[in-house]
Amino acid sequence: QDCGLVLPRMMHQRHHRSPFGDNYCIVTGTLNPLLDSTHFFRRLEKLVYTCTGDEPKCWQLSEDMKKGVLRGDYSAIAEAESGLKAVEQDRSNA
User: Which of 24, 43, 53, 59 has the greatest number of beta carbons closer than 10 A?
Assistant: First the structure.
């Protein structure tokens, strides 16, 4: 990370912040914009949940996010993500 060969620490930390639903590409980050904008990982979360019953952490934080993903309603997901990000921001400012 210090040499710039992989994702800088600051960008990697985005992966660990609420709503825990984006920035999954933690090696270089080059595909994050494409994968996030196409809801690739949300779709993958739904597939994993359908096959295993395991819920991602972001669903445990927001029932609206879970419902939105299961319906394929990505506008509802964006609203839920915004709400979770606002809560996280409030916590960090306190």
Answer: 59
